[in-house]
Design a protein that fits this description.
The protein has 196 residues and is mainly alpha-helical. The protein has one domain (5-189). Helix content is 49%, strand content 10%. It has helices at residues 5-41, 91-97, 104-110, 126-135, 147-151, 158-171, 174-190, and strands spanning 47-53, 59-65, 114-116, 143-145. The strands form two sheets. The protein has a two-stranded antiparallel sheet. Strand 3 (114-116), helix 4 and strand 4 form a beta-alpha-beta unit. Helix 1 (5-41) packs antiparallel against helix 3 (104-110) and helix 4 (126-135) packs parallel to helix 6. The longest helix has 37 residues, at 5-41. The chain is globular and about 50 Å long. The model has no long low-confidence stretch (mean pLDDT 90).
Length: 196
């Protein structure tokens, strides 16, 4: 980073808080319509909570809009057999548009997450967490999006994902984060890299 690590962390945190607050009114409006769609098309709660691995391997409970039926396995999507069969009627749309990630703005405000960083692993993704530990990735705050997400998302193997996260760790900067956010937005519009 161009700045000292402490200064860069403070700048990143201030950016996260400012942007979260700025887009929260629009996000809340979207959530009203999303909640209605989820509740009227499937049984169960609007939000799904799962244990995720945060910075320094601390577990936290992360919220997403529920896109799968109640009782679906607690596994990463790429590890599930016939994962599409567990999707709710609106689940596929919510995933492809990334609208299911909107509740994570709350975690960014709390400091559990950042806008940019490695996506938080599920508590039982031991292989991913172990590879990240070797590379030092677990020292980063997990993100809503990241370098690996804009480079392939669901299309990447775990090894390729960690390699890209390692590259981000070495290159991390405010300007790179802005590029990743902009690229994420364009990828979402194009619905790139989402296989489920």
């Amino acid at each position: 980073m161009g700045d000292t690590p402490k200064t860069a962390l403070v700048m990143k945190r201030l950016f996260d808080i400012t942007l979260s607050i700025a887009i929260s009114p629009v996000a809340l409006l979207f959530m009203v319509f999303i909640a209605i769609a989820v509740k009227t098309t499937s049984e169960g709660p609007v939000l799904h909570w799962s244990s995720r691995v945060g910075r320094q391997r601390r577990l936290f409970r992360m919220a997403k809009v529920r896109t799968m039926v109640v009782g679906a396995p607690q596994l990463a999507t790429h590890l599930m057999t016939g994962s599409a069969s567990y999707l709710t009627p609106v689940g596929g749309f919510l995933r492809k548009t990334s609208f299911d990630e909107i509740p994570q703005l709350w975690h960014i405000l709390k400091g559990d997450m950042s806008f940019v960083g490695p996506r938080p692993a599920l508590f039982n993704q031991d292989d991913l967490v172990a590879l990240r530990e070797k590379a030092g990735i677990n020292e980063l705050t997990p993100g809503l999006t990241g370098w690996a997400q804009i480079m392939g998302r669901d299309d990447l193997s775990i090894e390729d994902k960690v390699a890209l996260e390692t590259e981000y760790l070495k290159r991390e900067s405010f300007w790179l984060d802005l590029y990743i956010i902009a690229k994420t937005f364009s990828n979402v519009l194009a619905r790139k890299g989402v296989s489920h």
